[in-house]
């Protein structure tokens, strides 16, 4: 009996598949479609990571601004404790009919209260919370004072920083762009 010669893949034809169909031929690499799908999945994942990072930075900025607002409220309360007699008489009061506006700080007059309000407004409100920040201070005769600070975060930024759109800074608190903190203390 004769020994059959080895059959190569190119010689093996599959019946019924027509000429040129070869059995046993392995795929020689990833196809273009598989590469495109892998790139698409990877790019969607990277976009997700970028979105999470962006949200994290936004939350951190908002948290930092709230912390600065709380520190500002404690600062004016400490100043009022140093001048308690005038504070309980209402020298520091600025209610919602005439709030302190960071872009329109009161003039520093001859009284300690007016000088402290001027310094606090320009150094705490305007410098740290932006020109759109506002504050209301109400003290009663018993020395219970409430400081309310309204400020705008990330969408507005700080006025004059060159990186914000001033049109965004006109948003109101009711439109969901601003934040408000309340601090109440006994002098």
UniProtKB/TrEMBL annotation:
Keywords linked to the UniProt accession: Membrane, Transmembrane, Transmembrane helix
UniProt keyword Transmembrane, yes or no: yes
InterPro entries per record: Pilus_4_PilV (IPR013362)
Transmembrane segments: 32-52
Name of the molecule in the record: Type IV pilus modification protein PilV
Species the sequence originates in: Stagnimonas aquatica
């Amino acid at each position: 009996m004769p020994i059959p010669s080895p059959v190569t893949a190119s010689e093996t034809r599959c019946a019924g598949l027509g000429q040129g169909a070869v059995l046993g031929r392995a795929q020689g690499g990833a196809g273009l479609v598989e590469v495109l799908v892998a790139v698409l999945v990877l790019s969607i994942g990277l976009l997700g990571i970028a979105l999470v990072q962006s949200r994290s930075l936004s939350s951190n900025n908002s948290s930092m601004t709230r912390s600065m607002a709380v520190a500002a409220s404690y600062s004016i309360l400490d100043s009022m404790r140093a001048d308690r007699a005038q504070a309980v008489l209402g020298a520091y009061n600025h209610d919602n009919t005439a709030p302190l506006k960071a872009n329109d700080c009161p003039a520093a007059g001859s009284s300690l209260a007016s000088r402290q309000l001027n310094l606090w407004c320009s150094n705490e409100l305007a410098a740290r919370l932006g020109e759109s920040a506002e504050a209301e201070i109400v003290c009663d005769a018993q020395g219970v004072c409430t400081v309310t600070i309204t400020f705008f975060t990330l969408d507005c930024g700080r006025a004059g920083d060159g990186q914000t759109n001033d049109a965004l800074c006109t948003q109101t608190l009711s439109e969901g762009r601003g934040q408000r903190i309340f601090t109440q203390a006994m002098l």
